[in-house]
């Protein structure tokens, strides 16, 4: 029983990290109908930057802020330089461009920081809380993880539903032509969408790095999990991404704990395929299918 | 107010506008008539910057706007109500309306404009929290016009406002347009297939055929010209 | 002058006569394959053993790229999982030869069937997946499958993988016959078989059906093409090629280890297809050559200007990334497309120089 509770708690924590990656993918999908396969590499770069800043300054908070800021800049720059030319073209072209970016960023990271993964500090203790005389599998850092993803999701939610900026971004995503007629600078909104998405991705990188370490390839699986969580939630829904992340996190935690950690990624594949076969539009989507 | 000279718009090899010259006087309602494919929508899309003309120039109040981006042309006082109304169905009615004035600096006037849109179309006020997808065709047209007015336009481009609407609602919409011009001195370029209802409120009529202007005259003269009606308007 | 004219006349005659390929598809492809085979043989005999190993590598890359061409280029499905399918082929080969003591040819046949089956199962699952969904699912496969080797070290040898003995050249070829040339021959034959089978299929009904599904799925459905079954078939065929490529990989490298089948392999294959030109078998040749010579060239460059190890070891991947994204942005039809266009341009120029007025007239109308 206590093992079940531990695995569940552990699943919630990693689920929130998947949710963060999923949010990054959903934001970009909603804005440009592109699945950003470079997201895993982007968050890898920002986490490396955090690692360097922490090593140089000795301050975790400084590194944390640097990663988020770097994400913002990286996301915006990539949209402007690489994605803009393929927007509105055949979807396969956009996917290939993001895949090219994925390899390129991994190679660049290897050139700068080397191919050997390095450890990454946690913000708080990773020693589990003591409850009823034993350490549960939920630490202050896990609490920090859950809390920071929730805060970010909430902030994004408020931005989208309560501000003019969010209204503009939604309009640009739903009906770009109409939005332009209403004076929305659509290109700028798409750039913001990519920038904000990259911030969400950067957060995920910072939170998962203490477990998986920082290396050019260590975040490959996070991209898979984030994508699966996003599809679980319908790829269009931000709330769906968070719920999808939680469900996936808990399910994979059971697979890992009761079967084998080696099966986790393939289990994600099975979940992905089953969900797509049973409910292609995802479990939580509320938006109608749009012809793209 | 608006001067077009020799404007050419082409999609690939097809010329939608084949050298159009047109002057729209300030404060007027100009009806643009013609059959399907005559180039009516392309005319509006060229003015509002959705398509870049291949040749010719478009001048708004002495300023050349040819090739300018749509989102900048709006800021010069041109509001385009596109064909099919361009409602963003995923947003609520009020969000659609607010979107029309988001670019404006004068936030107080934007709030005032919202109230005025609700006064003009009380139905929209009743449904302001609903998703725009739940509106009927007539309500969508009201929303679309109300939203365009949020920008306090000097030039209003209307693309087939009567499309798919019942006659009663069409005449209500036309009355609103005529009334608007009286009250706010807005210039209107009204594209219609429904020639009778458009000519009823217009000061001038322009007939397009295959991307060219074939007639431009007083609405009564146009309405009385049987040959023209048969040839180009299918009436 | 007359000698040149004579030569041209002879070439013309040759083109009209024996050089013209048979019209019948199968015969045509067999003739092409024999031609390629001869060229391959001559090349392999005259080059150094090191070059022979590069040739062998190009041959198994080509085999995998033929498979990816079927799927991505002709059926319009994007797979990032072909590296994983190659891994299935490679591990199956090592296990069949090493544990079950199969001979080489039956092994390769069995491996192709095994991977095709795996591909069919995957395809059945993926048949309803489109665009980014399929890409995501195959991505999961590419990332997840190598992890199995670590999870079950007893069967798959963990991180170090499994090894087999190299194939032995027949005694009749002599004692000094280079092993790499023998490997190149095996890989070359495998590649040719894949080419003939696939080229033949694509020229016929199957090819038309694949293209119909790629270009307009709904219309294809309306004219009665079973879309789902077509996509499963494309996936199966594609996986069979990838599996055979995995088997040939083992012939050349005598090793199946997770490190060789990471996500980067799948992405390299995709680069090969895009770089060569999506959807043409000719493009697969260019793609395979690019996958062999780009890294080799990068290594030489690194040595020449003595780059740090970190930089030089990642240079090929960086080039792939640039080629993939840049190729898509700048030359979406790849090398084969560029060649085609160059040919057209040349043709137009030639015609123009012969008949000036008409030539330019024609240009204007186009």
Describe the structure in brief.
The complex is a heterotrimer of chains A (292), B (235) and C (366). By secondary structure, chain A is mainly alpha-helical.
Give the oligomer, counting copies of the same chain as homo and different chains as hetero.
heterotrimer
Write down how many β-strands of chain A occur, each being a DSSP E stretch of 2 or more residues: 2
Number of strands of chain C: 2
Could you list the spans of chain C in which at least 5 consecutive residues all have pLDDT below 50?
A: 13-19, 356-366
| Mean pLDDT rating of chain C | 81
Helix share, percent of chain A = over 70%
Q: From the helix content, strand content and strand pairing of chain A, which structural class follows?
A: mainly alpha
Instruction: Tell me the series of helices and strands of chain C, N- to C-terminal.
Output: HHHHHHHEHHHHEHHHHH
List the helices and strands and how they pair.
The complex is a heterotrimer of chains A (292), B (235) and C (366).
Chain A: H1 2-32, H2 39-57, H3 60-83, H4 91-113, E1 130-131, E2 134-135, H5 140-162, H6 164-174, H7 176-181, H8 186-212, H9 220-232, H10 238-259, H11 264-278
Antiparallel strand pairs in A: 1-2
Helix pairs in contact in A: 1-5, 1-8, 1-9, 1-10, 2-3, 2-4, 2-8, 3-8, 5-6, 5-8, 6-8, 9-10, 9-11, 10-11
Chain B: E1 2-11, E2 14-24, E3 29-33, H1 40-47, E4 55-60, E5 63-64, H2 70-74, E6 78-81, H3 93-99, H4 107-120, H5 122-126, H6 137-149, E7 155-159, H7 167-184, E8 187-191, H8 195-201, E9 204-209, E10 212-217, H9 219-224, H10 226-233
Parallel strand pairs in B: 3-8, 3-9, 6-7, 7-8
Antiparallel strand pairs in B: 1-2, 1-4, 4-5, 9-10
Helix pairs in contact in B: 3-6
Chain C: H1 2-16, H2 25-46, H3 49-74, H4 82-98, H5 104-126, H6 131-151, H7 153-156, E1 162-163, H8 179-203, H9 205-215, H10 217-222, H11 227-253, E2 255-256, H12 263-276, H13 281-304, H14 309-330, H15 334-354, H16 356-365
Antiparallel strand pairs in C: 1-2
Helix pairs in contact in C: 2-8, 3-8, 3-11, 3-12, 3-13, 4-5, 4-6, 4-11, 5-11, 8-11, 9-11, 12-13, 12-14, 12-15, 13-14, 13-15, 15-16
Please provide a written account of the structure.
The complex is a heterotrimer of chains A (292), B (235) and C (366). Chain A has 292 residues and is mainly α. Chain A has one domain (2-114, 142-278): ABC transporter involved in vitamin B12 uptake, BtuC, CATH 1.10.3470. In chain A, 73% of the residues lie in helices and 1% in strands. Chain A has 11 helices and 2 strands. Chain A has helices spanning 2-32, 39-57, 60-83, 91-113, 140-162, 164-174, 176-181, 186-212, 220-232, 238-259, 264-278; strands at 130-131, 134-135. In chain A, helix 2 crosses helix 8. Chain A is globular, with a radius of gyration of 19 Å. The model of chain A is unreliable at 287-292 (pLDDT under 50). By secondary structure, chain B is α/β, with parallel strands linked by helices. Chain B has a single domain, classed as P-loop containing nucleotide triphosphate hydrolases (Rossmann fold, 3-Layer(aba) Sandwich), CATH 3.40.50.300. Chain B contains 10 helices and 10 strands. Chain B has helices at residues 40-47, 70-74, 93-99, 107-120, 122-126, 137-149, 167-184, 195-201, 219-224, 226-233, and strands spanning 2-11, 14-24, 29-33, 55-60, 63-64, 78-81, 155-159, 187-191, 204-209, 212-217. In chain B, the strands form 2 sheets. Chain B has a 6-stranded mixed β-sheet with strand order 6-7-8-3-9-10, with helices on both faces. A 4-stranded antiparallel β-sheet of chain B has the order 2-1-4-5, covered by helices on one side. In chain B, a hairpin with a 2-residue loop joins strand 1 (2-11) and strand 2. Chain B is globular and about 50 Å long. The mean pLDDT of chain B is 90. Chain C is mainly alpha-helical and 366 residues long. Chain C has helices at residues 2-16, 25-46, 49-74, 82-98, 104-126, 131-151, 153-156, 179-203, 205-215, 217-222, 227-253, 263-276, 281-304, 309-330, 334-354, 356-365; strands at residues 162-163, 255-256. Chain C has a domain at 23-167 and 175-262. The longest helix of chain C is centred in the middle third of the chain and has 27 residues, at 227-253. In chain C, strands 1-2 form a two-stranded antiparallel sheet. Chains A and C meet through helix 4, helix 9 and helix 11 of A and helix 6, helix 12 and helix 14 of C.
């Amino acid at each position: 029983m206590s093992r079940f509770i531990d695995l569940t708690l552990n699943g919630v924590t990693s689920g929130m990290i998947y949710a963060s990656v999923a949010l990054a993918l959903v934001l970009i999908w909603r804005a440009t109908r592109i699945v950003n396969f470079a997201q895993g590499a982007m968050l890898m770069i920002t986490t490396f930057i955090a690692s360097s800043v922490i090593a140089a300054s000795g301050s975790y908070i400084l590194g944390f802020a640097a990663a988020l800021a770097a994400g913002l800049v990286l996301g915006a720059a990539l949209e402007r330089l690489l994605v803009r030319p393929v927007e509105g073209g055949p979807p396969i072209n956009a996917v290939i461009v993001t895949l090219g970016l994925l390899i390129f960023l991994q190679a660049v990271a290897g050139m700068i920081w080397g191919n050997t993964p390095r450890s990454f500090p946690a913000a708080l203790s990773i020693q589990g809380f003591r409850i009823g005389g034993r350490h549960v599998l939920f630490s202050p850092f896990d609490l920090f993880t859950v809390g920071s993803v929730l805060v970010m999701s909430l902030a994004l939610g408020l931005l989208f539903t309560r501000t003019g900026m969010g209204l503009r971004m939604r309009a640009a995503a739903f009906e770009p032509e109409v939005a332009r007629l209403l004076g929305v600078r659509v290109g700028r909104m798409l750039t913001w969408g990519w920038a904000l998405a990259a911030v969400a991705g950067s957060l995920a990188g910072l939170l998962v790095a203490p477990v998986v370490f920082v290396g050019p390839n260590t975040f490959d699986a996070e991209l898979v999990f984030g994508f699966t969580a996003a599809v679980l939630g319908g790829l269009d829904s931000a709330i769906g991404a968070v719920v999808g992340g939680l469900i996936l996190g808990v399910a994979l935690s059971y697979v890992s704990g009761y079967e084998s950690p080696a099966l986790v990624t393939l289990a994600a594949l099975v979940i992905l395929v089953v969900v797509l076969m049973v409910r292609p539009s995802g479990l939580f989507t509320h938006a109608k299918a749009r012809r793209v | 107010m608006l001067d077009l000279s020799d404007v050419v718009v082409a999609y690939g090899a097809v010329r939608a506008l084949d050298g159009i010259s047109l002057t729209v006087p300030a404060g007027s309602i100009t009806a643009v008539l013609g059959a399907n494919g005559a180039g009516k929508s392309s005319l509006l899309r060229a003015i509002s910057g959705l398509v870049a003309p291949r040749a010719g120039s478009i001048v708004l109040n002495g300023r050349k706007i040819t090739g300018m981006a749509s989102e900048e042309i709006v800021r010069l006082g041109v509001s385009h109500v596109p064909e099919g109304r361009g409602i963003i169905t995923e947003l609520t009615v009020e969000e659609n309306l607010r979107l029309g004035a988001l670019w404006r600096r004068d936030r107080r006037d934007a709030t005032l404009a919202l109230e005025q849109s609700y006064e003009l179309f009380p139905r929209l006020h009743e449904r302001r929290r609903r998703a725009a997808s739940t509106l009927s065709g007539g309500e969508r047209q009201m929303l679309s016009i109300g939203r365009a007015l949020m920008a306090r336009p000097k030039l209003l481009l209307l693309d087939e406002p009567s499309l798919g609407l019942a006659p009663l609602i069409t005449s209500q919409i036309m009355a609103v347009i005529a009334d608007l011009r009286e009250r706010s001195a807005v210039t209107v370029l009204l594209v219609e297939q429904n020639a009778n209802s458009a000519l009823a409120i217009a000061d001038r009529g322009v007939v397009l055929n295959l991307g060219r202007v074939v007639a431009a005259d007083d609405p009564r003269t146009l309405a009385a010209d049987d040959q023209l009606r048969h040839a180009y308007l299918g009436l | 002058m007359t000698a040149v004219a004579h030569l041209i006349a002879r070439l013309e005659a040759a083109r009209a006569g024996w050089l013209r390929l048979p019209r019948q598809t199968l015969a045509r492809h067999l003739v092409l394959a024999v031609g390629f085979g001869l060229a391959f043989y001559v090349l392999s005999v005259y080059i150094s053993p090191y070059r022979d190993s590069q040739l062998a590598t190009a041959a198994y890359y080509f085999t995998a790229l033929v498979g990816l061409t079927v799927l991505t280029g002709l059926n319009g499905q994007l797979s990032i999982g072909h590296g994983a399918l190659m891994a299935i082929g490679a591990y199956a080969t090592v296990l069949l030869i090493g544990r079950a003591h199969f001979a080489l040819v039956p092994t390769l046949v069995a491996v192709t069937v095994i991977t095709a089956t795996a591909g069919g199962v995957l395809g059945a699952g993926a048949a309803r997946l489109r665009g980014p969904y399929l890409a995501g699912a195959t991505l999961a496969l590419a990332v997840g499958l190598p992890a199995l080797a670590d999870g079950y070290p007893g069967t798959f040898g963990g991180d170090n993988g499994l090894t087999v003995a190299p194939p032995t050249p027949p005694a009749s070829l002599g004692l000094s016959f280079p092993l790499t040339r023998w490997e190149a021959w095996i890989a070359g034959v495998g590649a040719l078989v894949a080419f003939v089978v696939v080229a033949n299929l694509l020229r016929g009904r199957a090819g038309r059906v694949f293209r119909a599904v790629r270009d307009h799925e709904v219309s294809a459905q309306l004219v009665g093409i079973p879309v789902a079954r077509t996509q499963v078939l494309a996936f199966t065929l594609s996986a069979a090629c990838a599996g055979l490529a995995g088997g040939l990989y083992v012939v050349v490298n005598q090793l199946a280890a997770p490190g060789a089948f990471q996500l980067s392999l799948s992405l390299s294959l995709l680069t090969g297809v895009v770089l060569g030109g999506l959807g043409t078998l000719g493009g697969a040749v260019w793609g395979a050559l690019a996958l062999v010579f780009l890294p080799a060239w990068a290594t030489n460059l690194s040595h020449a200007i003595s780059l740090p190890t970190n930089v030089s070891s990642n240079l090929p991947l960086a080039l792939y990334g640039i080629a993939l994204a840049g190729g898509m942005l700048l030359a979406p039809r790849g090398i084969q497309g560029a060649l085609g266009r160059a040919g057209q341009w040349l043709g137009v120029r030639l015609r123009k120089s012969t008949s000036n007025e008409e030539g330019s007239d024609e240009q204007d109308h186009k």
